[in-house]
Amino acid sequence: MSMRAPASDLPVMFLEVGILAGEVTILDNVSLTLDGGPPTFLIGPNGSGKTTLLRAAMGLIPTSRGRISWGGREAAQPTRRAIVFQRPAMLRRSATGNVRYALAAAGVPRAARTERATELLALVGLDGLGHRPARRLSGGEQQRLALARALARDPAVLFLDEPTASLDPAATKAIEDIVRSVAARGVKVVMATHDLGEAKRLAGEIVLLHRGRVIESGPADAFFAAPKTDTAKQFIAGELLV
User: Fold this and answer.
1) Which in 93, 132, 166, 175 has the greatest CB count within 10 A?
2) Beta partners for 81?
3) What pTM does this model have?
4) DSSP class of residue 39?
5) Taking the alpha carbons of 202, 206, 208, 209 in that order, is the dihedral positive or negative?
6) What would the mean pLDDT of 159-185 be, rounded to a whole number?
7) Options 3.90.700.10, 3.40.50.300, 3.20.20.80, 3.40.50.1370; CATH of 12-90+156-236
8) What is d(CA 137, CA 117) in angstroms, rounded to the nearest whole number?
9) d(CA 52, CA 216)
10) Which stretches within 95-241 are classed as H helix?
11) pLDDT at 79
12) Residue of 190, 212, 234, 167 lying closest to 38 (CA atoms)
């Protein structure tokens, strides 16, 4: 199974992007490039703009000012992008049926869908559970199924919005293993997390957000070893950012 999609939506470039909700600024003058390579992790306190940045990068919400481009194009259809939300909705069908639906939406020929669905369920550790109703799976299993559905698009870039936020350690490890596997297959992962330990384990690049602004970004090793800003030092130390 090919998971290495043409990187037609990369790089995703934010140029002085602002996003407002009424009079409230959610993203404030964000300039950022998301390119191929190891996973990029968005970190920061609740309300810092992580989810909004992911949704904007996916093309789901418009900018109030500035612009976003995908592979050098603006207003590009998200043919090589996929997103998994923190609480994904399950369709009223089996696990296999959920993946087959996603494959159909992605334009995969009917004759190939059963084999592809089986491969994707195996990739996320759900082989043997394809017949189970998706809504009867555990929370961790549903999150893995959501990953399989997202990967049905064969994306070049996969956005993940705190996929382990409500999971126990075993389920979290299962998701992290999938992220490593997907990244190793050439898919760019951009993931929001509240868990600094998770970011240390998985990230190649860190973007710290606070009050809708990018405070600091760069290689994960350097960020955690020698943060450049007081805000980053405080956040890494576990202090509350207000």
Assistant:
1) 175
2) 157
3) 0.94
4) P
5) negative
6) 95
7) 3.40.50.300
8) 17
9) 18
10) 95-105, 110-123, 139-151, 169-184, 196-202, 220-225, 230-236
11) 79
12) 190
